[in-house]
């Protein structure tokens, strides 16, 4: 039952926005639930916890109550978003041309566990985002030059927040991964400072910030060509349990 203080809608994730096969890209679904919480406001960061993979092409329940938004499939909690008062640290700016050159070292070109991923997968131009972050020589950073497709716009001609969250997501994992390695996104905290426009050229930069058991930590940022910060994030990834 929906009360006067609760908003509830039905959400279905199109297969285009997949990460691992059969599940939504973690950043995209985190950004989608964040938008349900914040709308068009970007006055604070949002922390999104992914409790379980989000299925594709399935009717899901998206609820916004007070300062929390949740996504559920039946009784199963999939995603939860809350507003947080936190200033996010960001990796240093890398100029677009330098970021684009770094793509040649992208580990996913040698071995990619999820080649169909919307954000970092090896999909055709205009279909996926094709963000391929590779090492920046002389730094602890990885970076990619993001050429924003014209095929991902809102009605107002700008890029939805969910797309920006997707761009922030995968690089925080690739800051750790060697070819063929993978983990699953567990939590993403992000804040968008400025809009992203289709056809634009942006730098996406990330760095690894630590490891604790099966948890991997990273930070990422999107920058305009002049170094203006567009968006920032920090992430926690969970590596698979070892068999045996």
UniProtKB/TrEMBL annotation:
It comes from the Bacteria. CDD domains: hot_dog (cd03440). Gene3D superfamilies: Hotdog Thioesterase (3.10.129.10). InterPro entries: HotDog_dom_sf. This is Thioesterase family protein.
């Amino acid at each position: 039952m929906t009360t006067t203080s609760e908003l509830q809608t039905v959400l279905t994730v199109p297969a285009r926005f997949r990460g691992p096969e059969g599940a939504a890209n973690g950043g995209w679904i985190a950004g989608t639930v964040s938008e349900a919480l914040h709308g068009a406001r970007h006055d604070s960061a949002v922390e999104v916890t992914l409790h379980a993979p989000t299925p594709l092409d399935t009717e899901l329940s998206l609820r916004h109550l007070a300062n929390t938004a949740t996504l559920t499939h039946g009784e199963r909690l999939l995603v939860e978003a809350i507003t947080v008062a936190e200033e996010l640290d960001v990796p240093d700016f890398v100029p677009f041309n330098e970021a684009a050159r770094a793509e040649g070292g992208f580990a996913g070109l040698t071995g990619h566990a999820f080649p169909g991923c919307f954000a970092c997968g090896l999909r055709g131009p205009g279909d996926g985002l094709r963000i391929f972050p590779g090492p920046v020589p002389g730094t602890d950073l990885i970076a990619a030059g993001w050429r924003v497709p014209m095929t991902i716009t809102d009605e107002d001609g700008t890029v939805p927040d969910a797309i920006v969250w997707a761009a922030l997501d995968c690089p925080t994992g690739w800051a750790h991964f060697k070819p063929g390695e993978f983990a699953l996104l567990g939590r993403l905290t992000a804040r968008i400072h400025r809009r992203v426009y289709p056809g634009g050229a942006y730098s996406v930069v990330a760095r690894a910030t630590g490891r604790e058991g099966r948890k991997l930590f990273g930070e990422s940022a999107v920058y305009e060509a002049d170094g203006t910060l567009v968006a920032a994030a920090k992430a926690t990834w969970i590596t698979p349990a070892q068999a045996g």
